[in-house]
Amino acid sequence: MELWYTEKQTPHVGITCKISRTLHTEQTPYQHLAMIDTEQFGRMLVLDGMVMTTVQDEFVYHEMISHVALNTHPNPEQVLVIGGGDGGAIREVVKHASVKKATLVEIDARVIETSKEYLPEISSALSGNPRVEVVVDDGIAHVKKTRGVYDVILVDSTEPIGPAEGLFALDFYRDIFAALKDDGIMVAQTESPFFNADLIRRVYKDMRRVFPITKLYLAAVPTYPSGLWSFTMGSKRWDPEQVEEEKIPALGTKYYSADIHKAVFKLPRFVRDLLE
Ligand code: SAM
């Protein structure tokens, strides 16, 4: 018998994948967690019924949440990833030779542990890397108690429900601003411009109240709702669109490049309209 998994992405739209095997399911203290193997996308991490990452298309999201900020900042040394317990963003962060310490603050230890077990190619930097520190804590509490420490903060969160709700709030962006150094940069994943227009509008407006430079950029992620994904950057000093191409190092990436860095801020008209 064929088995198919459907994520109901909105009340009216879903994505359906043929399952080759269910590897693991559990209820953690924070969410329902499933690891499934799919014919098209390989292994897939699903939290509360929503696709978080897959072995086949994870490179787009993880490269794009990391390298745009890390190449905009001239010398990122201290980097914080909030959420991101699968380890994909941290794996990209430590590709930068300037990074002395990459800290992961994930609220759910089970996401980290199961990713290490079932997604070794994504979680590879979470064990045995002396530059990586893994902290199991609430990212909101962590930034509240931190002042002027980080060059770059990446918010690699779940959708804005449950423990991630506060990761999409004005007060959180103010705390991130304070946790960054004087020329720090943050990037948050901000969902789909097709399905989450109100969220994008609100987050962009809130981040613009906090950061002198706020920019939105896009990437194509097949397993995320609508396939078109947005990231919003807040920067204290550096403008990601002013980066000189030759300063962008080769990082062994499959999606991100100097051309992509320059191109992703050119937005389709309907997305630009959301920001006005
Ligand atoms: N790339 C994914 C996406 O856009 O669908 C998200 C990756 S998933 C690994 C995000 C992680 O954020 C989850 O493991 C979840 O436990 C974590 N998370 C949610 N709220 C959090 C909080 N307040 N502090 C730290 N981590 C949190």
TrEMBL record:
Which residues are responsible for catalysis? D156
Query: Cellular component per GO?
Result: cytosol
Q: Where is the PABS domain?
A: 2-236
Which reaction(s) are listed as its catalytic activity? Answer: S-adenosyl 3-(methylsulfanyl)propylamine + putrescine = S-methyl-5'-thioadenosine + spermidine + H(+)
Q: Which InterPro entries match?
A: PABS (IPR030374), PABS_CS (IPR030373), SAM-dependent_MTases_sf (IPR029063), Spermi_synthase (IPR001045), Spermidine_synt_N (IPR035246), Spermidine_synt_N_sf (IPR037163)
Q: Which GO terms describe its molecular function?
A: spermidine synthase activity
Instruction: Give the enzyme class.
Output: transferase
Residues bound to spermidine: H62, D86, D156, S157, T158, E159
The protein's role, per its UniProt record: Catalyzes the irreversible transfer of a propylamine group from the amino donor S-adenosylmethioninamine (decarboxy-AdoMet) to putrescine (1,4-diaminobutane) to yield spermidine.
- Family note: Belongs to the spermidine/spermine synthase family.
Q: What is this protein called?
A: Polyamine aminopropyltransferase
Q: What taxonomic ancestry is recorded?
A: Bacteria, Bacillati, Bacillota, Clostridia, Eubacteriales
The gene designation is speE
